[in-house]
Amino acid sequence: MTKKKRFVVHEHDAAHLHWDFRLELEGALKSWAVPKKPPTKSGVRRLAIEVEDHDLNYLSFEGKIPEGQYGAGTVKIWDLGEFNIESMNADKIVIFLFGRKMKGRYALVKFRGENKNWLLIKTKTNYDSER
Q1: Range of 11's domain?
Q2: What phi and psi values does residue 57 have, to the nearest 5 degrees?
Q3: Which of 92, 90, 97 is nearest to 21 (CA)?
């Protein structure tokens, strides 16, 4: 495994409440909008819609985005931590998250034939102690 990188999950109360899942990759935050709360239990899958990359400053961003601006609404850090990449290609990213809420092995898997839709999946590993 490679050196740990950072991730953040924002709870974003904009036009619709959603979560922004962001991974530090290639000098930016690769980002996905997750309409339902991100999974914390093995086997749970959530739709994750790829959005534009964000600046690394968003790792610590919280606050209110004013009306009339892109993403207007309240942004709070829901989770924060580091991650390691197990494997990565254009259609699948497998990572280990070390956050306060999101811990363990996760996979982002791109839908076939889709440009922006992915699944964010909490996967089970041999050392998970969930019951």
Answers
A1: 5-122
A2: -60, -20
A3: 97
How many separate domains does the chain show?
A: 1
Average pLDDT of the segment spanning 79-83 = 97
> Tens of pLDDT along 23-77?
999 999 999 999 999 999 999 999 999 999 999 999 999 999 999 988 889 999 9
Name the phi and psi angles at 60, rounded to 5. Answer: -115, 10
- What's the rounded Cα separation, in Å, for the pair 117 and 131? 30
Q: Does 109 fall in a domain?
A: yes
